[in-house]
Amino acid sequence: MKMNRSEKAGALPGVPDAEVTRLAERAIAILLSKSEARRSAQATQMLLLCDAFLADEDEARRAIMNRLRLDGTAGHDIIDDLVPELARYMGVRWADDEISFAEVTIGSARLQEAVRALGRKADEARRGDTARAPGRILLVIPRREDHTLGAFVAADQLRRMGFVVDIAIDRHPRQVGQMVRHGRYRMIGITAAGRRTLASAKELVDIIRASLTRVTPIVLGGSIVEGGADLKAYTGVDHVVSDVRSAVSLCGLDMPMEVRADAVS
Question: Which domains does the chain carry?
Answer without folding.
Answer: 26-127 (1.10.1240), 131-265 (3.40.50.280)
